[in-house]
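tool_log.txt
---
The assistant was asked to compare two proteins side by side. It first ran the structure predictor on the initial sequence, then on the second. Raw inputs and outputs are pasted verbatim so the downstream comparison step can read them without reformatting.
(1)
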Amino acid sequence: MRILAIESSCDETAAAVIEDGRKMLSSVVDTQVETHALYGGVVPEIASRRHMEAVVRVTEQALADAGMDKHDVDAVAATCAPGLIGALLVGANFGKSLAFALGKPFIPVHHIRGHIAATYLAYPDLKPPFLTLIASGGHSEIVMVRDYTDFDILGGTRDDAAGEAFDKVARVLGVGYPGGPKIDKLAQGGDPTRYKLPDSHIKDAPLDFSFSGLKTAVINLAHNAEQKGEEIDRNDLAASFCAAVVRTLVPRLEQTVRETHVRRVVCAGGVAANSFLRAALADMAKRTHTQLYLPPLHLCGDNAAMIGSQAYFEYLAGNTGTTLQNAFATAEIGENICQKR
């Protein structure tokens, strides 16, 4: 089954053709990073307009790269939740219209389910059940993937997501947007023990995270140094911040591994590209004797290939949408967005 997938939940307009959920025939991503970098972050209205300008072009390119005509696809999928609502509506309405015009099924996909499914493209033999650490711009969660469309949240953030914290700290350090890759690059060669940053602990919820205190600690440290006329070592502070994020995420994941006795662990989302986190997860896998699945860097960020992969399993589960399918700014990973109102 060949699925044409559209992704437009934030600031990437993407299209891909995926076969049977595991094989990537094409993947095209049009990024808006340079545009939003001027403003220090994503401007929703600008993102929506850019999606409208790019969606036809990236779709035509994805079909051409796959050596296909639009009539050759078996279904059309699009991200319908969660994300920036204006941006989501561009991809969802384009996908619905195209599916209707072609007389093909339309498959709405949850963005975070898509991030998990990116791993299926890199590891075709991977099958549920497995444990997943979601670490992205808007989400930080520990999720038990019981089946391809069956998810349980075991732990999550009480405030900022990890990727959100990266963007805010990047602004403080003056490296701009997007924060994740720039902080990672700045941290290379830095001393992760130079600055003492706090660890969060949620009373009565040992698997939950909090990043607001960490973010505030970095801001205060930088402002206090500025007021005193002291110089901050940006490399060391970036490395210390990355180490603090790892201390927040990995021990909770390791605790979950030991409590659930799961033998397969996945990390998904944009923050999964962070070199400090990837190294710490590899060490954890050795300690716990688990098999670690890390998507390649090009599948960590937002892309339509991951949406096409998850769409295949949603289709097999009967989760198809109609022309009335809506998009939603928020939705839990366990929700069936075909039934969400």
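(2)
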Amino acid sequence: MKNLATITVLIFTTFYCTACNEHNEDPMLPEQSEENSKPSDDTENKTVGKMEIIIDGKAFPVTMEDNAAAKDLLSRLPLEITLNDFNNTTEKIFYPKPALTLNGEPHGCAPVPGDITIYAPWGNVAIFCKEWQHSDDLIKIGHIDGNGINHLSVDGDIKVTFKVSEK
């Protein structure tokens, strides 16, 4: 009976230690702080350049991400398009022809108003007018700066022009 109790305690201790070490880190190493596990500032918010979106004759700056899809879009400027209203003004979308290159871009984004993304399964560009939940299928390629997104947050389709920023 004493051996059964000892074995039970050993099994419980083993499971407990395994559960506490869920990231398979070496228990002998110092704990990683949240600060140390975050990417450095060098890898965050890298941008490749600026463009402008012209809405109803008004130009608004757009900061582009440093990835292949953003560079592909920039290489096609100027671009006059009609943004289609999608999901009750949650986003405005268009389908670039040919589709923008993705070249293994990291997926995953929780868009906020003004974010310009690609929905990878369909290949469409989506400009978010409202906040949306994280999706592993979104790739962020830019963000409309300032209050430009307010001019897209309307019912229906809207014609816009993307052009190289003069600033």
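---
observation on (2): The beta strands are 47-55, 58-65, 79-86, 91-94, 115-119, 124-128, 138-144, 158-164. The helical segments are 2-20, 34-37, 68-75.
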